[in-house]
Amino acid sequence: MHLLEIECIDVYYGQIQALRGVTLRVAAGEMVALVGANGAGKTTTLRTISGLLSPRTGSVTFEGRPIHGLPAQEVVRRGITHLPEGRELFPSLSVTENLRMGYWPKRSDKSGMKPAMDHVMDMFPRLRERAGQAAGTLSGGEQQMLGVARALMSSPRLLIVDELSLGLAPMIVSQLFDVLRQVNEEGTAVLLVEQFVHMALQNTHRAYVLSKGSVVTSGVSADLLRDPALVESYLGGGPSAETASSEAVRS
Questions:
Q1: Residue 114: inside a domain, yes or no?
Q2: Does the pTM of the predicted model rise above 0.85?
């Protein structure tokens, strides 16, 4: 049984169809990339998994139980956390206070909060240095570190990440991917949408390629990376983190 199973979902924004029969799987312990050109339906897929959107047809199953149609807060309680594009931190709250908000699904276990906070701050020592600082005053890279750390506070079974690298310098992106690999090695499955296609495929086990709301191909990430026709046809070549430094915002 897969950890996450999406079966033939159709998703609409009003009368506009955004996803058409999307099917994908994530096994426990996997890192899976969802890649494609802008407007392919990647973010819509993640929002449907996390309960922010509901499929008109099809199903989303997590740990063998259907979750489509559940409110987002219940999806979080089931063990899925979503780091959205743009981070959506609480800018006026401190680093520590933002992390406490991430622990909300497990708030009944008060004894677990400090170990969880220590663990994520060990992953991101800079957050320990900035513990009392307002999130809105952090650099872009530090804010993304905080976003990842907050998402991990509830010890999710599945972490879904939308555009980890957006607006960040390549060095910061590389550090963040190092953390995702560590999280994955510790047992958390990861499903990510990423603009740096080469980096996404280099750091995941499998990948799905979306185009115009449909899955056009899937497979082992390393195999997809070696298919230049596929990358050119559906991904536009995809910038690599190493060649995008001139486009990134230094953080």
A1: yes
A2: yes
What 3-state DSSP class applies to 102? helix
pLDDT band at 234 (very low <50, low <70, confident <90, very high): low
Mean pLDDT of 35-46: 93
Please indicate, yes or no, whether residues 145 and 194 belong to a single structural domain of this protein. Answer: no
What residues does 12 pair with on adjacent strands?
17
CA proximity to 208, closest of 16, 14, 19, 15:
19
Residue 77 to residues 67, 105, 158, 159, 166: CA-CA distances in angstroms?
A: 11, 6, 11, 13, 27
- Provide the residue type at 21 as one letter: G
Q: What is the dihedral sign for C-alpha 194, 198, 199, 203?
A: positive
Tokens of 213: 């709301």
Give Dmax (Cα) for the chain.
53
Q: What residues does 192 pair with on adjacent strands?
A: 33, 161
In a domain, 133, yes or no: yes
Q: Tell me, what DSSP letter sits at residue 164? A: T
Q: Return the SS3 of 79.
A: coil
In the predicted model, what is the mean pLDDT of residues 44-50? 97
